[in-house]
Structures are given as structure tokens and as C-alpha cells.
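Entry for the shared binder. Reason: the reviewer on the internal report wants the predicted structure included alongside the sequence.
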Amino acid sequence: MQAFFRCFEAAKAQGRRVSFSALVGAAVLAMGSSPALAWSLDDVAKIASQRAGVPFKEALQAVPAELAKMEYDDYRDIRFKPESTLWRADKLAYEANFFHVGRHGDSVRVHEITPAGVKRIAYDPGKFNFGKNKLSPQSWGDLGYGGVRFFSHLNSPTYKDELIVFSGASYFRALGSDQLYGLSARGLAVDTAGSKEEFPRFTDYWLQKPTVEGAPLTIYALMDSERMTGAYRFDVKPGEQTITEVRARIYMRQTDKPVTTLGIAPLTSMFFFGENQPRPGDFRPEVHDSDGLMIALDDGQGGGEWLWRPLQNPASPLVTSFSMQKLKGFGLMQRDRAFRSYEDTEARYEQRPSAWVTPLSDFGPGRIELLQFATPDETHDNVAAYWVPEKMPVAGKPLELAYQIAWQGKNQQLPPNGWVTQSRRGIGYSKPGADFSSQQVQFVVDFAGPALDALPEAAKVEAITTASANARVVESLAYRNPATGAWRMTVRIERLKSAEPIQPIELRAFLQHNNQTLSETWTNLITH
């Protein structure tokens, strides 16, 4: 790490202005000659801290004209050559390859950490097959790479599947066994719900060459943005649920543009339509990468409330938040794992992972913010969820973060007592003249879980339902479903005539028996 500061001091002594990109590269080259040198989060943090002390300067990577003119399908024809895969010849537990830089020029520098030292992996066009494209990559110089992806024996001892991908800004996504890519995570979200979102991006990656069998895959990343920098360490443990352990230090820049919302452990997903919001004309019952936001609050005594918010595809942007003193965990979940719920033989939405975030250090008081906005189809992400700390970090004092993301499939995080299995909106058959007004909305919600299974046959279960001040609860019933034996709740809500018609209605409901809470709290928002 001293190499970085030697380069920096030498540049100052000679009166030269040297970009931090050049300094990072020079430092890593110098480190490569020191066989005993280790690399850690502290090393990345020193670079991030130094960067935070100077004004942000956009890294302008000139994109070759040939690349800039490429169409999306032409870019997809550029493939990394399998024989060039990093660590394949060593027959290690993990392998890595690289994305080519695209027409937008979002380039990253990649370094390898080995027992012999740290070295830069320079761009090599010979590692790529350019397909049908007629290009002259030998004239492009050192472009860097468009991202990194890693492989492991996730599903088979004889074949390495994709495990985790880092590509675009600070986005990454991972897979557990028998999963297909769905939602993504990010290093940081900045003013996501504001008028202009800022996208911090990873500019450098350090890949630690695996040396110990069974050890996690370790990746370091350096983040840069207009108002902050960051140092990250990712430890990835593949399995039925792949665990990504994240440790980070965020450094705020001194700027006259204060950050309004700093999103910690952000998740990004897609909800097009579902059982609570069906789409006429589509043969598929549901299309989404996630169907709900789950939150676990920590009451400081080993318990706390669990919340379930079904996702939706709103007509206009919708921002809601859930404040608390202490967070136990949150996630965007794909709770419905049945093929019959989607009937899509290509997309296989039932195999998309849930992502459950657990703090490994105390996040302190704050809120979970959920952003949902309209999407015209399933190709656009339209959902984001993240933790917003009550107190914003200040320049000169790093924000230390430690949390893990569990990428889960069929066996996923659930509340300890009971949980929602489906939420359906709509009114069924009613007799002519029945008391249903145009201002009323009905939900039918099914529950499951051990607390419900343990009830005696004749148990009296209540649906405890509340609505915001602009509505009243007309009906709230809990009863056994005679077809399945599970418990069902029917809730009917009426918007007050005096209420503002565009103001959303907030609902909360849970099942109770003899003052004992039997389920998570189902919390929904009626926007129309």
C-alpha cells in the first residue's frame, strides 16, 4: 500500500497532476514485485479515503468508434474464450472470466491477488471471440473490462456454473443451487427516489486467487462517485443458498450537494403482474422476479414484528418506508416457488432467487425504503428496497458496514410463526343489491406456518385489521379453507367519501388467537 503514497508524493514533488486511476495502476504494479505483500480491505480503504479528499473527476474512457456504433445484438456476439478463463488451468474451486467493454464505455480495472503479489490483468483482445463483427481490437489499447463473473461447482461436481456477476455501476447478482438469475444487489444507492439518482460505480476489482479448498471466494472492489467513495470486500460462499458477506467503508466527499437518501444494501427487482394484480390477456398467471418485501424488526429481546408487503406495478412512482430502531433483516423475496403460478417454460420465474439481507453489525435506527414504479413489460426493473440510516455519515469519518445477503430458493427465510402464501384482490359473486359500493376493495389472503398448524380444530382465530384514516374496515374475517385446511383472511375496505381520492390507503392485518400473534403482519397499499 505504501507504493500508492510513494507515487502520490513523487507526483506532488515534481509538480505534476496525476489522476487517481494512474496512481492505482502504478501502485499495483509496484506491489507486484513484493512476493510477501498481502492485500486487505484496509488497502482498498486507504485508496478510497485518499480519493474522497479531492473533488470527483469522471473517468473518461474513450470508446473506440467501432464499439460505440454497435447494436445490442452485435455486442452479445462478443464472447470470452473458455480456454482463457482465469484459474481454469490450475483446477481451482473457482474460475473467472470477463465481459467486454460495451458501447457506453463503462470500463473497470481488474487485478489478481496471488501469493506472489498483486498484478493488473490488462485487457487482451486475444481472450475474446468477436463473432461476426468486423473489428480491429488490436488498435484499441488497454480498454479494461466491462465486468467480472465467477464460476463454481454449484450444481455439479463435474461442471462449473455461474456463481456471481459484477457488471454495471455497483451492481452484482448471485445464484444458489438450482436458481436462475433474477433480482440484483448494489454496493450503494444514492437519492434513488429523488429527482436525480446518483450511481456510484466500482472502478477496480481485486480477485483473490483461491488457495484453500472449501474457502470462500474473495473479491475486493473500489467505488467512486460524485459525493462518496467506498472500499468493499465480498466473501462468497456457494451452496443451496449462496451467502455473500459484504464488508465496506464509505467515505463522504466534502461537497455543497448534500445526499438526501443513502441506501444501504440495496436490492433491485422486477414486478410486472401477479395474483394481487392480474394482467388480462396474458396466459401467464404471474410475471415477477420478486413478489414481496419482507422485513424483520428487532425488539432487542430476541423477538420483534415481521412484515410482508406484496409488491405491485403502480401507475405512478410509489415510495413507502418502514421506520424502526433496529433492523433484524429485510429482503425482496420470490416466495411463490410453484411453476403453475407462472406457466413460463422459458423464464422459469419460480427459480428466481430471493435475497435476504442480515446485518452483521448494528445499522442503528433508520428505515427501509421501498420504491416501486410503472413498468410496461418484464424487461425493466421497477422495484428497489434498501436501508436508510437515521444519521447521515459526514466527511472525514467513514461509515463501516457489515452484512450478508443470502440468495435463497425453495428453503428461504420465513417468520417463526406464520406467513402469507398468497394475496388476491377482488370481489367474487354477490347477490343483487348486496352492500358493495364502488369505493370498496376486497382482499383474500392465505396463511401458513407452525403456529397455525398447532391450533386445535375448533380454535377461534381473529383477523386484526386496521386501515389509515382515509378508509374504514367494512369486514375482516378469518376462517379455515375447507379445501386445504389452511387459514384464510377476507378483508373488505371502503374509502371514505370525504377522503382525497388519490391518497393511498394503508392496511395492516395479522391473525390472532387468544391474544397470541399467529402470523407476520400483512401490510398493503391501495393506490386506486
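Summary line for the report: Residues 458 and 480 are 10 Å apart (CA to CA).
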